[in-house]
Every structure is written in structure tokens, then in C-alpha cells.
Amino acid sequence: RKEVEQDPGPFNVPEGATVAFNCTYSNSASQSFFWYRQDCRKEPKLLMSVYSSGNEDGRFTAQLNRASQYISLLIRDSKLSDSATYLCVVKIPNTGKLIFGQGTTLQVKP
Amino acid sequence: NAGVTQTPKFQVLKTGQSMTLQCAQDMNHEYMSWYRQDPGMGLRLIHYSVGAGITDQGEVPNGYNVSRSTTEDFPLRLLSAAPSQTSVYFCASSYSTQDKAFFGQGTRLTVV
Question: Where does the pLDDT of residue B96 fall: very low under 50, low under 70, confident under 90, or very high at 90 and above?
Fold first, then answer.
């Protein structure tokens, strides 16, 4: 079993749609969780950290369920510019090591 | 506003050649790491460091060496390049074990 698992997609949605990505992780000691965005052939860039209480940043909402070891990202009112690969990332305690999911590809169509 | 700087951006090597991928950060981050990204595989950890003088292996360390003589620099060495090392390499750094990571722009390496 991979340490961090994501549905690779692709998710093809029309502009304005709401889309949700899910991610599961296996290391129950993990304490830090992130969603990164990666555009084609570019470096990953932080989209948002994920907190236990859930957090929102504009059209983006992230949720964490520690009991189920499950992380989600919700994008509302999708824009063409949201087209990218979204990486679920878990940080291993005391090491700074990042474990990446395979990434979920989103394509927003006009 | 340099952040994490990787050089070179592109490199072509012949099988058996050696080279060093450079990574430098100016944010006084203790934690630095190297990843490779291959199609359909996601980013995989090669080596990481929790501070100057301390390094450890990640998921795919074979064929790569690292050292961390200063806080700022974390070079990745390929001693004898192989076609299987054709990939995109990213260096990352973070302030603490729980903090977000910043990435360099990547090095696209082709081994022929």
C-alpha cells in the first residue's frame, strides 16, 4: 500500500463546477498535511495547509479526518486557471520528509 | 527574493558521466531534501537533511550521494549516470519539521 494515495483522475469539469479530491495516508503519526498545486513542468507550489478543524481559503476548502486518515480538497466555482495537478502531501514527524501522493489532474473546460 | 535556487535547469549526460546538481536556499531553513519526479510516479524522496552535517536516505537513494556542509547548500551528486536517472529533480527546504516546504524550479536531466 502506498503511504499516500490519491485518485489520479483526470477530472474534467466545466467552469463553475464544484469538484472534490480525496487522499488517504497510512502513517498515523503524521502531523502535518498540505495540498500543493503543480502546473505542467513546473515546481510544486503550496496551495494550502490542512488543519484538523478544517480550513478555507477563498474557493478552496480542506478537511482532515485523523480517525480515517483521510484528507480532502474542495474547489468551488472552478476557473479555467484551476487546471493543474493537485498533490496531497504528508509530512513525517521529526524528519521534514514529505511524502507525496501521485497527484490528481484537474482540467476545467469552458 | 531568491528562495530555493537550483542549477542547472537542464542537463544532458552520457551514461557513466558524473555531475552535481546544486541547491541553495537563503531562508535559513534547517530541513532540505531532494526529490525526483517521473511520469506516473509522483515525487519520490532521494535524500534529506535535518541540518548541517546530517543527511539520511529517502525512498530511492541508490546512485546518488549528498552532503550538507552548510545550512544553505545541499548538492546532489550522480557518480555514474544511468539512463534510469533521467528525470526531473526538485530540491525543497522548510523551516521546521511541521512547516510548509518551498521548492526550487527543478533540474531536467536526461541521460543518454
Answer: confident
Tell me if residue A14 falls in helix, strand or coil: strand
Nearest CA in chain A to B5: A43
Say whether B33 and A103 touch across the interface (CB within 8 A): no
B1 Cβ under 8 Å from any chain A Cβ: no
What is the mean predicted confidence (pLDDT) over A100-107?
Answer: 94
The tens digit of pLDDT for each residue in A61-101 reads 999 999 999 999 999 999 999 999 999 999 888 777 889 99
Per CB-CB distance under 8 Å, the chain A contacts of B44 are 100
Radius of gyration of chain B from its Cα atoms, rounded to whole angstroms: 13
Q: Do A32 and B97 touch (CB under 8 A)?
A: yes
DSSP state of B73: B
